[in-house]
Amino acid sequence: GIDAFTTITHFSWLRTFWSTLIVTRSILSTSREMRIEKRTIANIVCCEKCWNYPHMEDGIDCDDLGTTLSVKMSSLGGVILHELVHFDPMCVPSIGQQTEDIAWGPLSVRKLRQNEPENACLNADNYKWYARHLWWTVICNRRFSAPRGKIDTYEP
Fold first, then answer.
1. Domain range summary for the chain, segments of one domain joined by +
2. Which residue ranges does the record assign to the Lysine-specific metallo-endopeptidase domain (predicted)?
3. 19-31 pLDDT tens trace
4. How many C-beta neighbours within 10 Å does residue 27 have?
5. pTM, full prediction
6. CA distances from residue 143 to 59, 63, 77, 126, 134 in whole angstroms, order as listed
7. Pairing of strands 30-36, 20-26
8. Dist CA 93 CA 114 (whole Å)
């Protein structure tokens, strides 16, 4: 499995922005930036469910993902990416403001992109699902169709 130390090691390039990245467990996933003794610390708290997602090093089989963009593609890395884009250094220089939580999940973010494109670039989960879709398209060497509804978006 993966733990906080492993996660921090994988994301060590983030020290460009913060002196320390802390990833911990809790009942909710959140992110915040802190200043402690002149150091900027990025603190990401991942809910317990996040730590149970399949890990890339476990060798996820592309055939297990089905043919549509779905929650089967979820990972701890995706949650961390979602939380990271809430931090000012990640998106403010590009989009001019902080990201928000407007819609979650592959179907909701797709609908947001189609119906409110001006809000899609402000939504943290749009970045996560774009990255997930691109990653699995490249890794599996195939296209995934749009999510179909609850069957692709419900997490037990």
1. 4-153
2. 73-131
3. 455 565 555 566 6
4. 8
5. 0.75
6. 19, 13, 21, 18, 9
7. unpaired
8. 24
Q: Is the dihedral of CA 94, 6, 131, 45 positive or negative?
A: negative
Main-chain dihedrals φ then ψ at residue 24, nearest 5 degrees: -130, 175
DSSP string, the chain: ---HHHHHHHTGGGGGT-SEEEEEEESS-EEEEEEETTEEEEEEEEEGGGGGS--GGG---GGGG-SB--GGG--HHHHHHHHHTTSHHHHHHHHSS--B----SHHHHHHHHHH-HHHHTTBHHHHHHHHHHHHHHHHHTS--BPP-SHHHH---
Assigned CATH for 4-153:
3.40.390
Q: Dig out the tokens for 120 from the structure.
A: 């899609």
